[in-house]
Structures are given as structure tokens and as C-alpha cells.
Design a protein that fits this description.
By secondary structure, the chain is α/β, with parallel strands linked by helices. It folds into two domains: 7-129 and 308-333, Periplasmic binding protein-like II (D-Maltodextrin-Binding Protein, domain 2, 3-Layer(aba) Sandwich), CATH 3.40.190.10; 137-303 and 375-417, Periplasmic binding protein-like II (D-Maltodextrin-Binding Protein, domain 2, 3-Layer(aba) Sandwich). Helix content is 37%, strand content 16%. It contains 17 helices and eleven strands. It has helices at residues 7-13, 16-20, 44-53, 84-92, 100-105, 144-149, 161-171, 195-203, 223-237, 245-252, 258-264, 320-331, 343-346, 349-355, 357-367, 383-397, 403-414, and strands at 29-36, 57-64, 79-83, 123-124, 127-128, 131-143, 179-181, 268-274, 291-294, 304-313, 370-372. The strands form two sheets. Strands 1, 2, 3, 6, 7, 8, 9, 10 and 11 form a nine-stranded mixed beta sheet that branches. Helix 8 (195-203) crosses helix 9 (223-237), helix 10 (245-252) packs across helix 11 (258-264) and helix 16 (383-397) runs antiparallel to helix 17 (403-414). 43% of the residues are buried.
Length: 419
């Protein structure tokens, strides 16, 4: 990405249009672009197109471990992929460049094309520190082979909780170690057990906190929460549509990777996961089953949790104008794994061609009700409380307590943790 030096000055003094007419001679620039290691091999084609448009700019790629992205305080990085949870850390340490001058002066950015609310997520104290790179979404994957075996229609965007329950119950065959639904989100390393239960609580109108954006206390014993958890645990105890811990131990061996084993062996009909992991991306092995994907089921409420990544410029970058040109270019390309941040790109024929009609349809439908959580550090104060919630679900599934008893107990134990 070799850019015309002095572009920023032109932006401020003359505007982009006037600056372009100066036809300054481009000077060679080399930029280092840091990105998560599992994107290896996925940016090359995009950057090849960039190189064709900007022969004066050379891009050097540097892959880094995902959890190390908020530790990139070293010199030599120019542009980096920044998950939202890393933005606050990097910005507070002074590692990011304030992008306000670019955003305010560059009319070619076309901010109205970004999905509503996404650009604002990368703002801290009314200043812009990143530009949306892509959005990951929680979606529902399904095993087409198991649906075909029961002659069931594949789930489509707009399907309901009743549709989900009927399909999961119809697919389940516990004697054969097959279950219509497995709580895969609970198996992520470091996650609270039964994270998916928390998701279903909100989908069904309950709540775990008094305010999702600015939580101050838990609300485990809210009547709607109790009702939602009863629906969730019925999947296991009443309908046999999902494996209890004892069932999972018997069928898949137990342990942290229990539910991954169920999916890999083709014995899970439905499971929640991130759109970016489709096909087994980031898993120990590719999915071998005939899989499909759709939105989360809907009830009176419908949303899906969204996890945006952004592009940021390192504060010590030698050529910030060139970095800005790279960021703008990347936002106009279909992302290799995430939903493009620009509506025009997500709705384009090129995006559908690259990812397939079903994935594109799921992404578009989910983005219309995407829920973004801002500064996730706020929820760190409630990590212990969330583990109480997960333990409450486990106690119900193990037959130790009723839903009401378990949630009441969890609420009482969470009370001392109030800020």
C-alpha cells in the first residue's frame, strides 16, 4: 500500500477532491498488517487486488495469536485487526491512532453504508479509534443428514422456538447416542457452562442482568427468567432433545470437548456457533457431515449476539495516510470469514458468490437484529455470577433442584457481588 505522501494535509486544507487533482508522485511505502493467526491464507487475494490499485504500497503480513492482539505494543506494526474487547486496552495504553481527522474529512468513507451502530462501537470518549472490519454472529448450524433421515424440512430464517423444539425432539435417538441439539457454546474453552442457556433466556424475554448494556445486578429470579430456564431444561429432561451431563458422558465421553465430539461424529442435529467457524474453521478437523446454517430461532423477540472486529492504525505508524487507504479498501471487500461491515457489500452478488446463498441469507437476516455489547470489561465484574447461573442449570439437569429453587439460590449467592 504505497500512498501519496501529504494526503492528510490535503484532506485538512484542500479536501480530497482538490488533493486528488494535485497528482502528487507516489512514494514507495511498506506497511505491516497484523491479524489473527487463523486468518492465515485468507487476506492474500484481497491484498493482491489492493496491490493492483496501489502499486506504491507494499503490505507485509504478520499473523499473531488471537489472545495476543491486545498486547501489540511493539514498533513495526502499522495496521492491525482489533477485536472490540481489545480496543479499550490498546487505546488506554496509547497504542492506537485517533482516526477522527480521517473520518471527518474523507467523504469517500461513506459512513452511512456501514451497518447501523457498528462504527460507533469503535468510539471511545467521542473519538474514533477503529473502523469496522467485519461482524461475527451466533447462528444455528444443523446436520442435513440427520434432518434427511427424519424427512424434516431444513430450518429457514424466521423459524420459531416451536420449530426448533419439534425438530430437535424428532431427531433425537438417545439409544443410538444421537441428540437433536447439543449446547456447543458451553464447550468453548474458558466460557461459562451453558452459555447457550443465557442466550435462550434473552430470546424468550427473560434477563440475567437488570440492564444488558450497563449491568449493576443479576436478575436470576425474574419470573420471565424462571420461565425461560424451565423451557430450556425441558429440552433435556422432558423431551430428551439434548443430552444431560450424564447422557453426554455416556454417549461422547464427557470433558470439555464432549459436544465437539458429538458434532464431529455426526450425532448432533443442531448446535449454536459462530458464523466464522462454519465447516470446522478453527476446529481440530473439518466437518465431514453435510451441514447447513440458519438464524437463531425466534419467539416474541429475535436477535443474535454480534462480535465486531475493527481495523486500527498503530499510533507510531510512519505512513498513516497509506494505512487509511488500506483500511478503506478492506472495508469494501467481502471479509474472508465475517459478515462485511458495509451493507452494500453484504447484499452484493459477489458476497453471495463467495460464501454461498445459504450463508449470505443467514448473515443478512441476522444482521437486521444484531445485538452489540459495548465495553465487555463491564461484564467481567459478573463472571462469578454467571458461573453461579451455569451451576444452577447443572443442578437442575442433574435432578438436584427445581428451576425455581436453583435460580433463587443463585440469586441469593450473587447478591454480595453487587457493585
Amino acid at each position: 500500500m504505497r500512498v501519496r505522501t501529504g494526503i492528510l494535509g490535503c484532506l485538512v486544507v484542500l479536501s480530497l477532491v482538490g488533493c486528488a487533482r494535485l497528482a502528487l508522485t507516489p512514494e514507495p511505502v511498506t506497511l505491516t498488517f497484523a491479524y489473527p493467526e487463523w486468518y492465515v491464507g485468507r487476506y492474500e487475494s484481497m491484498l493482491q487486488r489492493f496491490d493492483e490499485q496501489h502499486p506504491e504500497i507494499t503490505i507485509e503480513l504478520r499473523s499473531v495469536p488471537w489472545r495476543a492482539l491486545d498486547e501489540l505494543g511493539e514498533d513495526g506494526i502499522d495496521v492491525l485487526v482489533v477485536p472490540l474487547w481489545s480496543l479499550y486496552t490498546l487505546q488506554s495504553q496509547g497504542y492506537l491512532l485517533n482516526l477522527d481527522p480521517f473520518v471527518e474529512e474523507d467523504q469517500t468513507l461513506e459512513t452511512q453504508d456501514f451497518y447501523p451502530g457498528t462504527l460507533e462501537l469503535f468510539s471511545i470518549a467521542h473519538h474514533t479509534w477503529g473502523i469496522p472490519a467485519g461482524i461475527d454472529l451466533l447462528v444455528m448450524f444443523y446436520n442435513r443428514d440427520l434432518f434427511d433421515r427424519r424427512n424434516l424440512p431444513y430450518p429457514q430464517p424466521g423459524w420459531t422456538h416451536n420449530d426448533f423444539l419439534e425438530a430437535a425432539a424428532a431427531i433425537s435417538d438417545p439409544d443410538a447416542g444421537i441428540y437433536g441439539y447439543v449446547p456447543l457454546a458451553s464447550g468453548f474453552a474458558g466460557n461459562v457452562p451453558y452459555f447457550d442457556a443465557a442466550l435462550f433466556v434473552y430470546l424468550r424475554g427473560g434477563r440475567l442482568f437488570d440492564d444488558l448494556q450497563e449491568p449493576t445486578r443479576t436478575a436470576f429470579d425474574d419470573p420471565l427468567t424462571v420461565e425461560a430456564v424451565e423451557w430450556y431444561t425441558d429440552l433435556y429432561l422432558k423431551y430428551g432433545a439434548a443430552p444431560t451431563p450424564e447422557d453426554a458422558q455416556r454417549a461422547f465421553g464427557g470433558g470439555r470437548n464432549t459436544y465437539y465430539v458429538a458434532v464431529q461424529q455426526g450425532k448432533a442435529g443442531l448446535w449454536i456457533g459462530s458464523l466464522s467457524e462454519r465447516g470446522g474453521i478453527g476446529w481440530p478437523a473439518e466437518w465431514t457431515m453435510n451441514w447447513g446454517v440458519t438464524t437463531l430461532p425466534r419467539d416474541e423477540l429475535f436477535f443474535t449476539q454480534a462480535f465486531p472486529d475493527g481495523y486500527a492504525i498503530y499510533a507510531q505508524a510512519d505512513a498513516p495516510e497509506a494505512c487509511w487507504e488500506l483500511i478503506k479498501f478492506l472495508t469494501r471487500q467481502p471479509h474472508p470469514l465475517l459478515v462485511p461491515p458495509r451493507r452494500s457489500v453484504a447484499e452484493s452478488a459477489l458476497y453471495e458468490q463467495q460464501v454461498g446463498a445459504e450463508i449470505a441469507m443467514t448473515a443478512r437476516a441476522s444482521m437486521e437484529s444484531a445485538l452489540y455489547l459495548g465495553d465487555l470489561r463491564r461484564f467481567g465484574e459478573f463472571e462469578g455470577a454467571m458461573r453461579l447461573f451455569g451451576n444452577a442449570i447443572t443442578s437442575v439437569l442433574n435432578g438436584e433442584l427445581t428451576v425455581e429453587e436453583a435460580l433463587h439460590q443463585a440469586q441469593q449467592r450473587a447478591e454480595p457481588s453487587r457493585p
